[in-house]
Amino acid sequence: SPLIQMSGVEKQFANGTVAVRDMSLSIQKGEFVSFLGPSGCGKSTALKMVSGLLSVSRGKISVNGHAAGEGGDRNDIGFVFQEATLMPWATVFENVYLPLKLHGMSKAGARPRVEEALAMVGLAKFAKAYPRELSGGMKMRVSIARAMATKPKLLLMDEPFAALDEMTRAKLNDDVLALWEEHKLTVIFVTHSVFESVYLSNRVVVMAARPGRVVHDIPLPGGYPRT
Ligand code: ADP
Ligand code: ADP
């Protein structure tokens, strides 16, 4: 059975805006799917409904057999926001420790996990640094480490690299692919970059605006050939 099943999903916000209409998709374990489309087409709203951060107005989403947001295993989902959203007053270590702390782990108990997550993104030496000491790309790496700290099976990324320069972005794209392969993740990656969607994913779900809806669902078997 698919890891994620969306059937007839709609989101209407309190102000009446219909951000997503009649969205139906099945995503299998291990897929790297991108949601591609212009600003305002509902990509982020769709992703937040999958994560349970937003409720659905109509239709159904199941993740791993549970209604979105209602499984006992929120642990199994890592979310990376468009902004790195780090706590500025806390060290890199403390930022990555946060989700583990929320799940009741002690700092000492969590240390190996946090160190492992920082090593995944090449920041093992920066545990004691504060966010203000880091570049934009490094802050985004910390944010990815934080999402990986709970060892999620599903990684949801909401235009994570949109604010970064192209060189940094290219490097991070390769790093995300390496994480996906190494940790056998299922990834949904929201982007408005055609390049990013084709380079990264095995499947491009193209959305259009007003109201947000899926207009194409394009398989890219084997992904983009990389050397
Ligand atoms: P995208 O991620 O593709 O840029 P969004 O999912 O952020 O699109 O937004 C889709 C539509 O929903 C847009 O028209 C946006 O203005 C609207 N929208 C997003 N969040 C809210 C909200 N909390 N209340 C009302 N409208 C919203
Ligand atoms: P969940 O339990 O769903 O994982 P969290 O409570 O960890 O959610 O927080 C959601 C996101 O908001 C996380 O990425 C977290 O780091 C971020 N966050 C939480 N508190 C703050 C804060 N004070 N400043 C900035 N970002 C924060």
Automatic annotation (TrEMBL):
Gene3D superfamilies reported for this sequence: P-loop containing nucleotide triphosphate hydrolases
Single annotated GO MF: ATP binding
Key words, A-Z: ATP-binding, Nucleotide-binding, Transport
Entry-linked PROSITE patterns: ABC_TRANSPORTER_1 (PS00211), ABC_TRANSPORTER_2 (PS50893)
InterPro entries according to UniProt: AAA+_ATPase, ABC_transporter-like_ATP-bd, ABC_transporter-like_CS, ABC_transporter_ATP-bind, P-loop_NTPase
Domain ABC transporter: 4-227
Entry-linked Pfam families: ABC_tran
Organism of derivation: Paracoccus sulfuroxidans
Protein name: NitT/TauT family transport system ATP-binding protein
